[in-house]
Design brief:
The structure is a homodimer.
Chain A lengths: L8 E2 L2 H5 L3 E4 L5 E8 L2 E8 L2 E8 L2 E3 L9 E15 L9 E14 L5 E10 L2 E8 L7 E7 L2 E4 L4 E4 L12 E4 L3 H8 L13 E2 L3 E4 L5 E7 L7 E6 L4 E6 L8 E4 L2 E2 L2 E7 L2 H6 L2 H4 L15 E6 L1 H4 L33 H13 L4 E4 L29 H10 L3 E7 L4 H17 L4 E5 L14 H16 L3 E4 L15 E4 L17 H4 L36 H10 L4 E3 L4 H4 L3 H9 L4 E10 L3 E8 L5 E7 L4 E6 L9 E8 L12 E8 L4 E6 L4 E8 L2
Parallel strand pairs in A: 23-24, 23-29, 24-25, 25-26, 26-27, 27-28
Antiparallel strand pairs in A: 1-7, 2-3, 3-4, 4-5, 5-12, 6-11, 7-8, 8-9, 9-10, 10-21, 10-22, 11-20, 12-19, 13-14, 13-16, 15-18, 16-17, 17-22, 18-19, 30-31, 31-32, 32-37, 33-36, 34-35, 34-37
């Protein structure tokens, strides 16, 4: 059901003389004021009369030509209201309401032969989005962006959950601090990475989550990042103004543009309720509907994989110990394998058997193809061909075996950042997938980008990621892109983009460990733009159990791992541990088997960034619900009700929780499972261990 | 018939203690001495006891790791002699003799765990070639070249024919001067270009042609440029030492290498006879034989084209006057054409008719496809799709029409330097060619390269050019690449690479004019590495005759244009002028109709770089010969004999020559045609006008 009310009002000349324009949200809680002061555009934002953003300037600096920063007059304004709804192909909600008030200002530069741009503002009940538009006109054609001059003038020294601003990686541990402390904490925050490039002692990334001193939850990000450079934020820590900072190309330019064109939407989510931030659909609503005519081939996936055993060091991606190889020259049949190659036919069949037994969908296999001996850190151009398996990985036999069990194998395309090489092989690689029964691929961009000088988050690479996704759609292939740009809601337009990584995931638990509160932050930061392939489900938290030389441990209780399947939304969910471990905890694993990956409804029951999150979701097409909770290193008592259940119905709740004495460090595997009958009137007070949580399946009784 | 004598001699330990190694050419005229002095490798060269190169050092500087420049001991030497012959798929000779003495030195760096490299020297009768080799070994794997440290230590202030060293263009006018004058003449020499990047006030390009004070002709270039950066030369004009200077990538590195690998051959041609330089096959001999199993689809081409009319400005590549377009969005059927689009169906048919009437092979058509409105200077990424014609160019109809007349259309792929875009479309573009009867493509790389920061002659782009050529071979397509790297003999290995531009061609006559002696230099410089698509055959030298606003004129007589078909060797030869002009001079055009494009024998009858060149060639598979001559702005009397003709046979010589009063500036179209019977005993004294020359066809009488 679509209900659209569009009010188009053309302001008369008197109004244009008033250079300030006010836009309010449908519920009137948010108010945005746009203003030209001495030819410079400013905007400001309040929520329930509290200042969210003080006046901040807008504009685009142009290279070798007049900029779009000043000399403006307001030549036109238009307003509209939109109230529609739409159904995503997959998601947290069956139906999403798109309800906003819009203001579009046309700004003309008389001194540039009446060259004009537009800024479009959309004010939702839970936030603001705005973008720059460069319409086709005689006086505007090609231009190069030197820097975007958007300001976010914060009300004060907000508490922030931030990552160091970087052109190449988001794999830093989130720092929780006041903005005034960013400068002092930056050095320690910039831990080493295969590919990284910071740009400022006070630079931070988006999504940026904040909490103001007067209790407002504020999140800054962008939506619909297409044919543009990714935005980071440079903090002026005297005045607490965040300046947009785009990612440069190899020669220092920040965007090659051809009118008509537009910037992505800059988004500011605001609420006095933390759960509103988690539940916001603003970013999806700002993205274009999909043009894919057929989306029936796009389906959420629950999977296991030959992966964690390599991450921990139990086995290897590579087949031999050769120091280097040359594809098409090195004859692997003549080389003695080291015997620790994880992706071999027999072993993959074990995973297929496990997946089939437990009603999962797929098995990811990394390390199946020639080239892993020297894939990393060599800036190697022709590093993989994406079609040639190692001698012990039988493509056709595994396709046959998996298909006979109703299981898919997930393809793996590690590009090593060698992107020209990947594009050269892309059609062949996708066709190979189609020919051999694969319909989903995990791609990776580990290491510095080739062409050298480009960054992971520049316009050049953003163009590539989308190219890989749209080409995949031609082959009806779903994509899970790691080390790619963090998402900005593009899955609405390109629903075969199931997930990204673009943050520290579970793998970092094996590289030294994530903070115990990591998963109480990520949904407020990384997940705001789109799903993350977080790959939870680790039941054996001591990595040394798999690889005695690796002393890392996963900073979690087992019960919290189950909760993550609900709190970390993704249409692509991995049960990341090894089958041999799951077989020791099949009662707990039952939750993973049962939990849905696609939802009709989602609600945040409790939430405080950095402390705890409890989410409830209704499994798509059913009357069943699932609840998950995660907390920080302090542990807590979670108090929830079940008002979201159908009234007058009974449900069997199976509660997977931390034992009384569980602790993520000392006693992670102590969990309890109990079944209780609940109704919409029930309440629950549930103990959560330090670094713990819980999971509940709620199956409606007939 | 192949005759191979290989003598492998292993030197004993006593010899190794003698650190100097001497290599002589088969005829003993050339002598190369290799020596280690304090761990640094040096080489020097003499010809008939005259110094060609004084001792110059060798080595490779490595980034962030120990270099290959010193600390060497000579750990092994090997010598060999090779005397074979081979037949090229097309060329100036039916059979090419490959005869050299070889010395390979193994140099070990004890301080680097006995890491070793090899330098292989091949000494032919007409010059030296050497290259660095990096064999597979435990202590050598991936390395980045910071700079190649090869020196060419000249004997003195040689006269040189030089172009400013540049990472992006060779389209400069050759400067003739002593090396000591390079610095002073550089500024004026660096004329403006769509894409250029000089690197030194005394940097020059290769092929570099020189003449020493003691009368030696010396040429420095490289052979087999594969997976490496192009070499320029930086002149130390105090000591007259040329230092190798490689082309950097976007971040300043000069080569990403993985052992086993090698550098290209550095080549020094030497003779006291200028014609030997022109006749040398050294560079081809240093290239690998072709691996193509079937080469029957590769055939030399004589063609006309819808091209000169656009170069002169008589018509346009574009279809409309739109300031910018978006492929797939701009609807050309709704836009009013400007009416000056050259590549329209009717007009192309006129060229096809002309080609068929005069027994040519093909018609090149530029401007046939959507996108020409804003193709240039915009750094546009998605600039062409290579498959969508303008509304007035009927692909299928023209294919049918051309085929019915036995004519091919030559495809045109202007990339505008947007190379990722070209590679994305390459398979589709080549398949489109196959589907529509095209078997040859002229490609272009006008403007700065995308990915931005890369240069036309860097390793990245050299990789691309070869990728386009080898992929073309999969589709049985021949390639004529303009603005690409200058050739280095790769046509032996990849014989579908018919020609390149990589120098100022005839088009520059319309951009202000070339020097009158330009074509007396190019065969000594540009053509040393491979054929040039020079596109001669201009009969109407006043460009204003086509476009009254363009006052340029072609610095040539008409007769000299005919001579160029012989003096400017290429398997791809254009009759560049307009059919309507040729129709006024059909008697002269007869030479172009008759001249061959493939040869069994070639001889330089007279030659002095910068002054004159006269060449005789025997048409492949016939008993007929063709002679061509070109001279500088002074004019001259050419004196040749016909000893190359079969003894005792008679030939009808048709001599196309300058009239007595012809002059490239004032009276270019004054020519004479006379027929004479000649034998091998005949002689000819032929007047050549300033900027003039002549052409002779010699048809053996039955």
């Amino acid at each position: 059901m679509r209900k659209i009310i569009v009010l188009g009002l053309a302001f008369n000349m008197l109004t244009l003389l008033v250079q300030a324009q006010v836009l309010v949200s449908p519920d009137k809680n948010l108010s945005m004021k746009f203003e030209l002061k001495e030819g410079v555009p400013y905007y400001q934002l309040t929520y329930k009369k509290k200042v969210v953003l003080k006046p901040g300037s807008l504009g685009i600096e142009v290279k070798d030509a007049p900029s779009f920063v000043d000399g403006f007059t307001l030549s036109d304004t238009k307003t509209a209201t939109v109230d529609t709804s739409w159904n995503p192909v997959w998601g947290e909600q069956k139906t999403i309401r798109n309800h906003y008030n819009e203001l579009t200002v046309t700004l003309t530069q008389k001194a540039q032969k009446d060259r004009f741009i537009r800024i479009r503002f959309r004010l939702f009940n839970d936030g603001l989005g705005f973008r720059y538009e460069f319409p086709m006109q005689d006086n505007l054609n090609y231009f190069i962006i030197k820097e975007e001059k958007t300001q976010f003038a914060l009300s004060g020294d907000n508490k922030a959950f931030w990552l160091p601003g970087d052109y190449d990686t988001q794999e830093y541990s989130t720092v929780t601090s006041n903005l005034s402390e960013v400068r002092g904490k930056m050095k320690a925050a910039v831990t080493s990475n295969a590919s990284q490039h910071t740009f400022s002692p006070t630079g931070v990334q988006t999504p940026l989550m904040m909490k103001s001193k007067d209790g407002l939850y504020i999140n800054i990000h962008e939506a619909a990042l297409v044919d543009y450079s990714s935005m980071s934020l440079d903090l002026d820590d005297k005045n607490f103004v965040l300046q947009a900072h785009l990612t440069p190309d190899a020669i220092g330019d920040k965007g090659n543009m051809q009118a008509p064109c537009q910037s992505p939407w800059r988004t500011i989510l605001v609420s006095d309720r933390a759960g509103d931030i988690l539940e916001s659909k603003l970013i999806l609503n700002l993205n274009e509907p999909t043009k894919y005519k057929d989306t029936s081939w796009i389906k959420p996936i629950k999977y296991v994989g030959v992966w964690w055993e390599m991450i921990t060091g139990k086995s290897q991606w590579s087949y031999t110990d050769l120091p280097a190889v040359q594809l098409g020259v090195t004859d692997y049949s003549k080389v003695k394998p080291h015997g620790k190659h994880g992706a071999n036919t027999k072993h993959v069949k074990e995973y297929i058997d496990f997946a089939a037994l437990h009603h999962l969908d797929a098995v990811l296999v990394e390390g199946w193809n020639e080239g892993w001996e020297d894939w990393f850190g060599k800036s190697k151009d022709y590093v993989f061909d994406f079609v040639t398996p190692y001698p012990d990985f039988d493509v056709k036999e595994l396709h046959r075996y998996a298909a006979s069990k109703g299981i898919k194998i997930i393809m793996h395309h590690e590009t090593s950042g060698s992107v020209r090489n990947y594009e050269r092989h892309l059609d062949t690689a996708y066709q190979f997938m189609v020919d051999n029964g694969y319909n989903a691929v995990k791609s990776g961009y580990v290491g510095n980008i080739l062409p050298r000088g480009e960054y992971h988050y520049g316009q050049w690479m953003n163009n590539h990621y989308l190219y890989a996704i749209t080409k995949a759609a031609e082959y009806k292939i779903m994509v899970n892109a790691h080390e790619a740009v963090r998402p900005t809601g593009l899955s609405r337009t390109y629903p075969n983009l199931l997930a990204n990584e673009a943050a520290r995931g579970t793998e970092y638990e094996s590289f030294g460990g994530n903070n115990a509160d990591h998963t109480t932050i990520l949904p407020f930061t990384r997940l705001i733009g789109g799903p993350m392939d977080y790959t939870p489900g680790i039941f054996e938290t001591r990595v040394s159990a798999y690889n005695p030389t690796n002393k890392s441990f996963v900073h979690t209780t087992l019960a919290r791992q189950l909760g993550l399947y609900v709190t970390m939304y993704s249409p692509l969910q991995m049960a990341a541990d090894l089958p041999e471990t799951y077989n020791k905890f099949l009662d707990a694993f039952k939750f993973i088997e049962d939990v849905a990956v696609d939802w009709d409804e989602s609600k945040a029951l409790e939430a405080e960034p950095g402390d705890y999150i409890t989410i409830a979701r209704k499994a798509k097409g059913t009357n069943n619900w699932f609840v998950g909770s995660t907390c920080d290193e302090n542990g807590r008592m979670s108090n929830i009700d079940f008002k979201f259940l159908d009234k007058g119905k009974k449900y069997i709740a199976t509660i997977y929780a931390d034992a009384k004495d569980a602790h993520y460090e000392t006693n992670p595997q102590a969990y309890t499972i109990r079944k209780v009958e609940v109704t919409s009137k029930s309440k629950l007070a549930q103990h959560c261990a330090p670094g713990g949580g819980y999971a509940i399946s709620l199956i409606q009784k007939k």
